[in-house]
């Protein structure tokens, strides 16, 4: 006997409402009463309704595929963001296609050039460290592909963006070092062209100036995000005649690399040189001494960015939004004197 698959007609019959109302409720259309939508979703779950995406795609010219373009997926931050994206995508019946740039602007451009626009309903993007072109993203949007940026954003592109509060997180991190008695505070920054690098540097500088401390340009080093970059940054700083007594790193991996470089020089972390990172990577609790850091809401960034993309997909005139989520200071041993 052929199995009967539940359709929106079955849901409509059970609730004694029209098929069009069920369809609009499942699509989260603006003109559906919230209580009606709740009843439709509850009945759909009860009946184990599964949408026929092949049929929907033919009618709506949708594939139910979302692209995710990101620098990496193996580190804690991006894997956590991706988990948030995946949760929302799965709940709405979308498949994810992941593109990894390895922080290469050339690789990013090549992926976008080869992208079959008919194969995706939308694209979630965290730009590469050296990406300085906005044109390829603007072209995608002009061609009808919704794009939403998360974490590393292209500021000039008019579309939705989801970020953590980089400025205030950096300000609080630097202020914490000042409150602990550190006065010669260096910043191990990310690539200079990225928006969040600039915001974290601004937060660092404003915290210093707010406390009457001078900003010294040779104590600000722009480089990549890896542990090796953090190690090399300290090597560069320790060639200076006047060395810092604290380090604020743009992320935890750089902070950990900096700590390893300090240990190699027999410098007591915390007591002699304070170190603070940004991310709250699990490694921050494993390394000794444990690393003070600013926790980023990575899962929520992924979740909200995917929710916004789905709104751009379903509502062609959906107004672009900038969502900024708060960061949180976590004090550990690396800043205790």
TrEMBL record:
Residues 6-60 form the HTH lacI-type domain. The keyword Cell division does not apply. InterPro entries: HTH_LacI (IPR000843), Lambda_DNA-bd_dom_sf (IPR010982), Peripla_BP/Lac1_sug-bd_dom (IPR001761), Peripla_BP_I (IPR028082). It holds the Pfam family LacI. CDD domains: HTH_LacI, PBP1_LacI_sugar_binding-like. GO terms for molecular function: DNA-binding transcription factor activity; transcription cis-regulatory region binding. Keywords: DNA-binding, Transcription, Transcription regulation. It comes from the Bacteria. PANTHER family: HTH-TYPE TRANSCRIPTIONAL REGULATOR GALS, LACI-RELATED TRANSCRIPTIONAL REPRESSOR. This is LacI family transcriptional regulator. The lineage of its organism: Bacteria, Pseudomonadati, Bacteroidota, Cytophagia, Cytophagales.
């Amino acid at each position: 006997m052929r199995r009967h698959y539940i359709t929106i007609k079955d849901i409509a019959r059970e609730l004694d409402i029209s098929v069009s109302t069920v369809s609009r409720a499942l699509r989260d259309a603006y003109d559906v009463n919230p209580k009606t939508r709740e009843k439709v979703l509850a009945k759909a779950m009860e009946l184990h309704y599964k949408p026929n995406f092949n049929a929907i795609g033919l009618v709506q010219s949708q594939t139910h595929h979302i692209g995710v373009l990101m620098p990496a997926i193996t580190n804690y931050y991006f894997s956590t963001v991706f988990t948030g994206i995946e949760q929302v995508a799965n709940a709405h019946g979308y498949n994810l296609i992941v593109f990894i740039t390895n922080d290469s602007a050339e690789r990013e451009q090549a992926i976008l050039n080869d992208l079959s626009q008919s194969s995706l309903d939308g694209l979630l993007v965290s730009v590469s460290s050296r990406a300085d072109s906005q044109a390829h993203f603007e072209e995608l949007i002009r061609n009808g592909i919704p794009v939403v940026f998360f974490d590393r954003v292209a500021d000039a592109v008019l579309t939705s963006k989801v970020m953590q509060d980089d400025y205030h997180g950096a300000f609080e991190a630097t202020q914490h070092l000042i409150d602990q008695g550190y006065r010669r505070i260096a910043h191990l920054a990310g690539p200079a062209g990225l928006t969040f690098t600039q915001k974290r540097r601004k937060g660092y500088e404003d915290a210093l100036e707010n406390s009457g401390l001078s900003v010294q340009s040779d104590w600000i080093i722009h480089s990549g995000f890896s542990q090796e970059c953090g190690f090399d940054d300290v090597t560069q700083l320790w060639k200076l005649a006047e060395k810092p007594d604290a380090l604020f790193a743009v992320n935890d991996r750089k902070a950990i690399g900096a700590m390893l470089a300090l240990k190699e020089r027999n410098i007591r972390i915390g007591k002699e040189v304070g170190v603070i990172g940004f991310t709250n990577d699990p490694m921050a609790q494993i390394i000794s001494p444990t690393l003070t850091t600013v926790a980023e809401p990575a899962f929520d960034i992924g979740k909200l960015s995917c929710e916004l993309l789905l709104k751009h997909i379903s509502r062609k005139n959906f107004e672009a939004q900038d969502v900024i989520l708060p960061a949180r200071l976590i004090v550990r041993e690396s800043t205790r004197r």
